[in-house]
Amino acid sequence: MPSDAYAGVNRQVTDAVTQTNVKVVGEAPAGAVAAAAQAMAHAIGLAMENATQTQGGMQQVNNTTTAALIAIITQAKPGP
Q1: For the chain, which has fewer Cβ within 10 Å, the N-terminal or C-terminal residue?
Q2: Residue 2 to residues 9, 14, 75, Cα–Cα distance (Å)
């Protein structure tokens, strides 16, 4: 590129654009890591919520089974 290609552009403008580009490129990895960490935290939160819901469902099954067995026991006739 010829040296006079940017002769009409103020050096302060080109310097500001260059600094902005360097800043954006420098901050991109940190932003990507932060986004990945946030996505991981969200996924773990959903997994914990699912585990809690499953545990609650199993407790309902346990309660129903216990009630059915108690009904069977109370209806049993004594032996000979």
Answers
A1: C
A2: 14, 16, 101
